[in-house]
Specification:
The structure holds three protein chains of three kinds. By secondary structure, chain A is mainly beta. Chain A has two helices and eleven strands, in the order ααβββββββββββ. In chain A, a hairpin with a 4-residue loop joins β3 and β4. Chain C has a domain of 130 residues: Peroxisomal Thiolase, Chain A, domain 1 (3-Layer(aba) Sandwich), CATH 3.40.47.10. Chain C is globular and about 55 Å long.
Chain lengths: 171, 385, 387
């Protein structure tokens, strides 16, 4: 009876062994495609983004105004009550200055970093925010608690997507 | 409630790129676990296994693909997935297979092969975000964890150096772990001077990308007593998932972890965890996470954690040694398998078989934790001898 | 063996081939809300834990368990996700209750298959990545191979298989939850476009969107709630090897169904399934699968299912009705909710809530689901009401 660690399986490879073909690999690219139904709540949210406005849902029981909207209150467990427009201004709840792209490649020298942030929206309940990016700002000047405002794409370029807001900037 | 014991554990080496397929890694860990308690596959009644996103391997229904590598052939086999929380959650999952009275033995196997994803596993994390409200912004995991770290540091006035001290402490424990990916000593300065990736996260604040698998064998009391004179008991389990609207809550404190830990502590009859727990294995994919989770696990008062850290409270010979295994930061982070390392570590530690990593003073009670999803899920297992 | 556990609540959304007006969250909320109301549970706070089943590639989301809690009322609660059939999810919930630590557990599964643009492409990713997928064949070739072996190995005929589709699609006409009900003839099925010889188009089922939530309770808790408890007498699941080339008696018999059935029967104390069970909902993803599964589940001897079907034994007026709901051929295939869809029918029948298709005097029912091509995993559950 011994639980003591002894021999460990698993064989480490170097990157070059994969690249120079000295081990065999089967390469394949994922190409699954989907059309996700936005549904009632997010469908309207996207429609209003196209109109240049941000909309949420209000629950009469807990009094929360929820963004992104959903048709039910997950805390009170009931269909919530009404649509409410919130402002396109808000407060930076937290942020990052990111030098890595989505696929882990590095940002090319001279290019600005990504500036993701969670923005608590004015008119929504405290702590209710959305993730977006910041722009027209010196990265080193960003602070938690900074006031920001949405910069919208021109009306004719909006498609009903979260990217209809180009970014949020300090004001 | 039926008592459930961990009677065996095994793992592969954690490496950046493994020659073995996901099935073969699972097999290696499974065999090592069975060998450790001198059991054969025919002694096992069911398999509970865990692996995180299917996209890493490009395999749909990955649980079905992995089944035979995990010893699941001709057995009841079920795969659980909970992002990073999978590794500990799979043990909760295996626990109720046995605690329910349905089975007497259960093999828990967790595996992840991240190097299959080309050019980098990070790219596949894009698909964990909400497809309509977040993915169009092209986020990556570093974004959200950097934002959580920033919020956490801001809340208590913690500094990057504070976080780096925790990172160096854990990473250097891994030097004594023979299966660890990290093999060189790391200093606080190394961490602070490493490449900025997503402020406040620098490269050495993060755990490495890994391939690997870990398995443990669970048994009912009757079987465990027959198998070994050193069973390690699962005293309590807890799991919890918070809202997926992660931008609708304050990230500075993991409340879902507090609730999960309470579930486990209540089951274990623990009232004052900070006094009763001898070893903590909080989930540590980033150095701030270890501290963040010590607070969630009620092992450190909110906002006082750095003070305790600097006082040596979490050192190997401190009050509550933190991640004596070397954690994800040092041993490596094959997503689903990373949590199970912590279960295996408590198994070794509580049996006094952890070699150079052994926590002194005859530890009797340990807690293992894993965390996952969009900063919303936690699973906790309390183990005792 | 363990404590008794009952199904005390059920809720389901509308089942339809597309559901563009709602997203998956809204669809599941609908089912969960109805389920809790059905059980007399006022708020999900009263529920101790939640189990969901899903597969990443079906949702187009990695780590899809992230998006489970809210629509079940389960935020900051014990939630677990399983990549398995709905009946495996049910088994997980049942074991959680049997530990004595949790008294009321919800199990949820759903399908939003209409959002997947090419389902067969997704299935091809379930094939072994190094030696099946590179063949670049449509993955349902495996079903063709298996059906060929089944017909050859048991002497079952294509006509007999066709009659499964005729029966199930007709049964579906009496089921308001079924999307593929129709009157087709044996000739219609035999003359339908050949897909993977001997498997024709009408031997296969179409997709469906829908969500089902079930609520499980310990005996004590079940007695407190207002619904007639439907007891889970036995449950079993099992996996044969994923490697096609090393499956025992590939095609001629379904080893995974045997494993699942034997385990469920043992737990339920059933020695003679066909005499002790009144009716069944058995996986019919392809016509031959219904027959193959009935044999593996010991409802009849190997090779006899086709003949019994022709004699009318499995029709709704027969001695052992099978897929009165219409099965997957008649209701539509709901992926991870496949098994729960069958459990739902058993519950409705046992409660006497099955409307026009209500069977007389049924006390015990069997549901069995298979995880589909290319897997070899199945799950079975036996449900009954108080006599």
């Amino acid at each position: 009876m011994s639980g003591v660690e002894k021999v460990y399986g698993g064989t480490g490879l170097s990157a070059s062994q994969v690249e120079d073909g000295s081990i065999f690999v089967e390469h394949d690219a994922l190409d699954c495609e989907y059309t996700w139904d936005a549904g009632v709540a997010i469908g309207r949210y996207l429609q209003e983004l196209k109109n240049g406005r941000i909309i949420g849902r209000e629950c009469d029981e807990c009094r929360r105004i929820l963004v992104p909207p959903r048709m039910f209150c997950e805390i009170c467990w009931r269909p919530n009550d009404r649509w409410v427009y919130v402002k396109d201004t808000g407060t930076v709840n937290t942020f990052s200055i990111c030098y890595v792209n989505w696929d882990a490649s590095r940002i090319e020298p001279g290019h600005p970093p990504h500036l993701p942030a969670v923005i608590e929206l004015d008119g929504a309940t405290k702590m209710i925010g959305i993730m977006h990016i910041l722009g027209e700002v010196d990265p080193q000047a960003i602070k938690i608690g900074m006031k920001v405002k949405a910069v919208w794409k021109p009306e004719e370029e909006r498609t009903g997507a979260i990217t209809d807001i180009k970014y949020f900037k300090p004001y | 409630m039926r008592k459930v014991a961990v009677v065996g554990a095994g793992m592969t080496k954690f490496v950046r790129r493994a020659l073995e397929t996901p099935k073969e890694l699972s097999f290696e860990a499974t065999k090592a676990a069975l060998d450790s308690c001198e059991m054969k596959l025919e002694d096992i009644e069911c398999v509970a296994h865990g692996s995180a996103p299917d996209a890493f391997d490009g395999i749909h229904q990955k649980g079905e693909y992995l089944a035979d590598g995990c010893g699941g052939w001709n057995k009841p086999t079920m795969r659980v997935f909970n992002g990073g929380a999978t590794g500990v959650h799979a043990v909760c999952h295996g626990w109720y297979h046995v605690a329910s009275g349905m089975f007497d033995t259960c093999l828990v196997v967790c595996e992840e092969k991240m190097s299959n994803a080309m050019p980098h596993a990070q790219g596949f994390f894009l698909t964990i975000f909400d497809h309509i409200t977040e993915r169009p912004l092209y986020p990556n995991l570093l974004w959200i964890f950097a934002m959580e770290m920033n919020r956490y540091m801001e809340a208590y006035g913690y500094t990057k150096e504070d976080m780096a001290i925790a990172g160096a402490l854990i990473k250097n424990h891994a030097l004594n772990h023979p299966a660890a990916q990290l093999t060189e000593k790391v200093t606080v300065e190394d961490i602070l001077n490493s490449e900025p990736m997503a402020y406040p996260v620098y490269r050495l604040d993060v755990s490495p990308v890994s391939d690997g698998a870990v398995a443990v064998v669970l048994a009912s009391e009757k079987v465990a007593r027959r198998l070994t004179d050193k069973p390690v008991w699962i005293e309590g389990v807890g799991w919890n998932v918070d809202t997926s609207y992660w931008t609708n809550k304050d990230l500075y404190y993991p409340r879902y972890l507090e609730v999960a830990a309470k579930m486990a502590y209540d089951m274990a009859g623990i009232r004052e965890p900070h006094k009763e727990i001898n070893i903590a294995e909080p989930y540590d994919p980033f150095n701030y996470k270890a501290l963040h989770h010590m607070e969630g696990l009620q092992l450190s008062p909110r906002g006082k954690t750095v003070e305790l850290l600097r006082d040596g409270h979490f050192d190997l010979d401190g009050e509550i040694p933190m991640c004596p295994s070397g954690g994800l930061l040092g041993v490596g982070n094959p997503i689903a398998a990373a949590g199970t390392v912590k279960i295996a570590e408590l198994f070794y530690q509580l049996r006094g078989e952890a070699g150079k990593r052994q926590v002194p003073g005859d530890p009797r009670l340990g807690v293992a934790h894993a965390w996952g999803d969009l900063m919303q899920a936690s699973s906790v297992v309390v183990m005792g001898k | 063996m363990g404590k008794r556990v009952a199904i005390v609540g059920i809720g389901y959304s509308t089942f339809r081939t597309t559901s563009q007006d709602v997203n998956y969250r809204e669809m599941i909320f609908d089912a969960a809300f109805k389920c809790y109301e059905d059980a007399g549970v006022k708020h999900p706070r009263e529920i101790d834990a939640f189990v969901a089943t899903s597969e990443d590639f079906m949702e187009g989301v990695s780590i899809a368990d992230e998006y489970v809690p809210d629509q079940l009322g389960a935020a900051t609660r014990p939630v677990e996700s399983i990549t398995g059939d709905g009946i495996q999810g049910l088994a997980a919930a049942l074991m959680q209750v049997q530990t004595g630590q949790l008294n009321l557990v919800a199990a949820s599964s759903f399908s939003k298959a209409s959002n997947v643009i090419d389902y067969y492409n997704v299935v091809s990713y379930a094939c072994d990545p190094t030696y099946i997928r590179p063949l670049k064949e449509h993955p349902y070739f495996i079903a063709g191979l298996e059906m060929m072996k089944y017909l050859h190995g048991t002497g079952t005929t294509k006509e007999q298989c066709a009659k499964v589709a005729v029966k199930n699609k007709e049964n579906a006409l009496d089921n308001p939850n079924a999307a593929y009900g129709s009157l087709v003839s044996v000739e219609d099925v035999l003359n339908s476009p050949m897909r993977f010889d001997p498997l024709g188009l009408l031997d296969t089922c179409g997709d469906i969107d829908g969500a089902i939530v079930l609520l499980l309770a310990s005996e004590e808790k079940a007695r407190e709630l207002n619904k007639e408890p439907i007891w889970i007498n036995g449950i079993g699941w099992g996996t044969d090897t994923p490697n096609l080339d090393s499956r025992i008696n590939f095609g001629a018999e379904a080893q995974y169904a045997k494993l699942a059935g034997q385990k469920a029967y043992k737990m339920a104390g059933i020695k003679s399934p066909k005499n002790e069970i009144d009716f069944a909902e058995v996986d019919d993803t392809f016509t031959y699968k219904e027959l193959q599964h009935l044999e593996a589940l010991d409802i009849c001897a190997p090779g006899d299912a086709g003949k019994l079907l022709e004699q009318g034994a499995f029709s709704s007026k027969g001695t052992f009705p099978v897929n009165v709901s219409g099965g997957s051929l008649g209701m539509g295939y709901s992926h991870e909710a496949n098994g729960t869809q069958k459990v739902m029918e058993i519950v409705l029948q046992l409660r006497g809530e099955a409307g026009k298709r209500q069977l007389d005097g049924v006390k015990t029912g069997l549901a069995f689901a298979w995880r589909g091509i290319p897997t070899a995993t199945g799950a079975a559950v036996i449900l009954s009401k108080d006599k």
